[in-house]
Amino acid sequence: MKRATTPTPTKRFTVPAVDAGKELVAFLVEKTELSKTVMKKIIGQGGVWIQKPTEKKRRVKRVTTLIEEKDRIDFFYRPDLVILEDGCRPIFERHHFGFWIKQSGVPSEPTPFADKGSLLFEVQKKYPKAHLMGRLDLEVKGLVLVSYGPRAHRTLTQMPETDCRKFYLALVQGEVELIQGEWTNDLDGKKAQTLYKVLAKDEGQTLVEVEIPSGRFHQIRRHFADNGHPLIGDPRYGEDNKNGQRGLQLCCHRIEMKDPFDQRSKVVRHELPLAEFPEDLKIAFSRYKGL
Predict the structure, then answer these.
(1) How far is the CA of 39 from the CAs of 14, 47, 48, 49, 74, in angstroms?
(2) Mean pLDDT across the stretch 234-240?
(3) What is the pLDDT of residues 66-123, one digit of tens each?
(4) Rounded (10°) CA dihedral 228, 231, 232, 234
(5) Residue 214: per-residue pLDDT
(6) Which residues are CB-contacts of 16 (< 8 A; sequence separation ≥ 6)?
(7) Where are the domains of the chain?
(8) Beta strands 250-258 and 141-147, pairing class
(9) Domains 11-75 and 82-158 alike in fold
(10) CA nearest to 122, candidates 137, 109, 112, 136
(11) How many Cβ atoms are within 10 Å of 61's Cβ, its own excluded?
């Protein structure tokens, strides 16, 4: 589950009377000294918000929008921001829901910096009323359950947690001693349960399968780091576990769900294709499977 944080705008402007009637792109080019080409890209991907004195703040993506006196403009800009538009696709679909692959580096939901390129943005191109029924961290690749309409969203939200199980694969530093175990240390003052099973050990690393009945912020990453086994390639937790350009070795590789729209409560089970695994996880899992 995502921790509720709101990034601070890179810059914030209140439009003076002298600039009223200008086009948004011209105003921001003048105030930021970025090129018009760069500014059009930022606006187009969703990094600019306008709040009028009597209205709610809204994302504005039309570069020719005319601004008015006292408009407040929030400008979000990261020069290193990469928009990946081809990395998300459904692996399994039924009328009411689907399992989608989210790529590493793709946000689950729109951010103040951009709506374009997020998993939800890509899903809503095909299903405008879709909702994500779970989220993965930016660095994490894997399967995400998506509802395709309001009725489906209500039904899936009311489904018992035990009816939808999500399994993760992780490559962690060091050799995890117990073949299987459970950690229940609280995170951010809330109960957090992490179940794990050791699949293989090799060269000072351990391949584990993980299930988290609760879903706290960075739960898997924090629990393993707190217990002396940070995930390989985790940029935030642990020490001496960097992994160059190969990235965080964690993915949601399997979902098992009782279909609430099937009168027989048939269990739907789908796995992430091995080709989609992070590179080191792919190697470790292939060895484990004898492939």
Answers:
(1) 18, 9, 10, 13, 13
(2) 81
(3) 999 999 999 999 988 878 777 789 999 999 999 999 998 899 999 999 999 899 999 9
(4) -110
(5) 79
(6) 69
(7) 11-75, 82-158, 160-291
(8) parallel
(9) no
(10) 109
(11) 15
Please give the model's pTM, rounded to 2 decimal places: 0.88
**What is the arithmetic mean of pLDDT over 2-29?**
88
Question: What tokens were used for 71?
Answer: 């408009």
Mean pLDDT of the chain: 91
Question: What order of strands is seen across the sheet that includes strand 58-59?
Answer: 11-14, 72-75, 48-51, 58-59
Which residues 6+ apart lie within 8 Å of 174 measured at CB? 204, 205, 206, 228, 229
**Which of 231, 194, 226 minimizes the C-alpha distance to 213?**
194
229: closest CA among 194, 277, 191? Answer: 194
- Average pLDDT of 126-150? 95
Tokens, residue 248:
């965080």
CATH superfamily of 82-158: Pseudouridine synthase (3.30.2350.10)
CATH number of 11-75: 3.10.290.10
Domain formed by 160-291, architecture: 2-Layer Sandwich (3.30)
Do residues 47 and 61 touch, judged by C-beta distance below 8 A? no
Neighbours of 74 (CB within 10 A): 19
Alpha helices in 128-189 (DSSP H): 150-158
Kindly indicate the confidence band of residue 268, based on its pLDDT and cuts at 50, 70 and 90.
very high
Mean pLDDT of 15-33: 96
Asked if residue 188 lies in contact with residue 217, where contact means CB atoms within 8 angstroms, the answer is yes
Unique residue bearing structure tokens 């399968």: 209
Are the C-beta atoms of 92 and 270 separated by less than 8 Å?
Answer: yes
Size of the chain in residues: 291
Token readout for 88 is 């998300």
- Tell me the C-alpha distance between 252 and 214, whole Å: 15
